Structure formats: C-alpha cells, structure tokens
Amino acid sequence: MARRCELTGKTLLVGNNVSHANNKTKRVFRPNLQVISLASDSLKQTYKLKICMSALRTVDKLGGLDVYLLKAKDATLSTKALRLKRQVEKKVAVAAA
Fold first, then answer.
1. Consecutive H or E run containing 60
2. What's this model's pTM, rounded to 2 decimal places?
3. Which of 5, 7, 37, 39 is the most exposed place for a label (fewest CB within 10 A)?
4. Contact by Cβ (8 Å): 31, 3
5. What is the C-alpha to C-alpha distance for residues 57 and 69, in angstroms, rounded to an integer?
C-alpha cells in the first residue's frame, strides 16, 4: 500500500519516454500522493489518509469526507478507509433513526 491512494485506489502507471528520434525507454507515472488530515463531520474527529490530490479536490467538491465515503465503491477504498466508511454509515443510521 505504499504508492496507492486510499480513497480512489490510484496507483503507478507504466509507459514510455519517447525521444525526438523515436527511441523508447520505460518510465513510471506516479500519482501525486500526500498525507492529509481530513475531518469527519459525523464522527467529530480527524483522520490521516494518504490520498492523491485529485481525490482531495473531489472530497472538497462533494462537501466533505463523509459524503465522499458514502458515495465511494468499496472496491476502490483501502482497508482503513473501509473501516472509516462503516463507522460513518453506522453514525448516520443512528442519527437518522
């Protein structure tokens, strides 16, 4: 889980550097991963997650970590994010009842 976004599952991509003479050499495209503290509104706590900046923009656009986690597919989330999603779902269900 070293170079993988915990929210989107974005990971390394492999491609080629292509020179002007059309020589091809292997290269790696790495996601822009940062360790970010995100606040959960329903749990009233902050959590540190290693996420890519495109995921951070999406979290901001949707209105917070809780909304993003509730809309996210389980297959893309890391185990830490899945645990967090389950806690948020429980808290929201209790608040709605």
1. helix 53-62
2. 0.87
3. 37
4. yes
5. 14
Q: How far apart are CA 81 and CA 73, in angstroms?
A: 11
Enumerate the domain spans of the chain: 13-96
Sort 69 into a burial class: Cβ within 10 Å, 0-12 / 13-18 / 19+.
buried
Q: Which residue has the tokens 């974005």?
A: 10
Asked whether the CA dihedral 45, 51, 56, 58 is positive or negative, the reply is negative
| Alpha carbon 48 to its chain's center | 11
Q: What are the tens digits of pLDDT across the range 53-80?
A: 999 999 999 999 999 999 999 999 999 9
By the 10 Å C-beta count (0-12 exposed, 13-18 middle, 19+ buried), 18 is classed as: exposed
- The alpha carbon of residue 32 and the mean position of all alpha carbons in its chain are separated, in whole angstroms, by 11
Residue the block writes with tokens 């989330």: 77
